[in-house]
Amino acid sequence: MNFTWEQAFTKKVASTVAVLGVAASLHAAPNTSNHREDKPSFAFAYPKDLNLLNPRDFHAYAEGLAFQAEQDGMAFVLKNTHGVGSAFDGSVGGFSNSNNDWGYNFGLRTGLGIYMDHDAWNLDLAWMWLNITEHQGHTATSLEPMWLAAIDTPSAISGTHADANWQCAMNVLDALMGKGYHVSRKLILNPFFGLRFAWLDQTFGADYHGTTGSSRTIFHGKNDFWGVGGRVGINSDWILSGGWKIFSNVASSILCGSFHLKERFSIPGTSISFNETEKYHMNVPNLEIALGLDWGTYLYDHGYYLDFRAGYEFQMWWDQFNLRKIYGGASNGNYANDTVSRGNLALNGFTFKIQLDL
């Protein structure tokens, strides 16, 4: 009787384990009804696979950018509403007095990628280009220039009009390695690492009309940066239904960079002029965050996969604007200078991407 009970108990345990194993596999493993025979099924974390017929494991994409660009440290005039006097009563004029002051600048990001047979790693090469152009002008009863060393700051008033132009040409090249895999059937993560190369060439000019001793005085500065460093991040796709997904991406880099600065101007009413050049190295971090919607569809009986993506992206580039302000009085010849260390560059705006997987 004892032997019979042991046999029954053993048989019951074995059948229970078998049922639980089948249930777990049905819950965790990918749907393999259309899966290629040469692709293994993974029980939990399994590689991202578009299930293309005769895949070349290659993809290419193009992405349009519409970004607002904001940069600290570019205020260029003090506005005095009560005329010449020892008391300066007014406000600071620059590019960021209102959110409406910053326009949208258009750019392009394009890339190529390939999926490797080695543990389903993917290699990507991406290039981003953005051209920023901004203009701002201010008028007041009298103005004090912030990018010219006035004769007796702040009592020497420059005029009634001040304009400034800012241009920045950005070129960013990324070489990355990652691995896209399913955490579950409805969530794909793609952690990656690699290298980032960046070129940011800026020009900043301030034009003061009717300055003391001259009808027009212009400050001109160049702020060029080149850097290379490591980049890490993670992309995620949250699968909905009908080909729709929500995506969220985050990445960060630290670049070992070189700055090349040039600035020139003359002091109104004097023969004194400045024409300065500076070069130095500095480590510069940057951060990117993106969120949006994605929709994709198969073409030619699972021969290709076409994907459309629209999102909103934010980028922060720290310590990018580093021109020096020279100030003091020409009457005594004593001048001081200060680096504009608050010059963080922020980008935010819309992206639209088209990608083809082969």
Can you tell me about this structure?
With 358 residues, this protein is mainly beta. The protein has a single domain (47-357), classed as Beta Barrel (Lipocalin). The protein is built from one helix and 16 strands. The protein has one helix spanning 2-28; strands at residues 46-47, 58-71, 77-80, 90-93, 104-115, 122-145, 159-178, 181-184, 187-209, 216-239, 244-266, 273-299, 304-321, 324-329, 334-339, 343-357. A ten-stranded antiparallel barrel has the order 2-5-6-7-9-10-11-12-13-16. A two-stranded antiparallel ribbon has the order 14-15. The longest helix has 27 residues, at 2-28.
Identify the notable features of this structure and list them briefly.
Lipocalin; two-stranded antiparallel ribbon; 16 strands; 358 residues; 1 helix
CATH class: Mainly Beta
Mean pLDDT over the residues: 81
Tally of separate helices = 1
Assigned CATH architecture: Beta Barrel
Range of helix content: under 10%
Quaternary form:
single chain
Task: Give the SSE string.
Answer: HEEEEEEEEEEEEEEEE
How many separate domains?
Answer: 1
**Strands, total number:** 16
Separation, N- and C-terminal Cα atoms: 66 Å
CATH fold assignment: Lipocalin
What is the overall silhouette?
elongated
Proportion of beta-strand residues: over 45%
Low-confidence stretches: 17-37, 152-156
- Radius of gyration, CA atoms, in whole angstroms: 30 Å
Structural class: mainly beta
Largest beta-sheet characterization: 10 strands, antiparallel, barrel
Spatial strand arrangement across the major sheet: 2-5-6-7-9-10-11-12-13-16
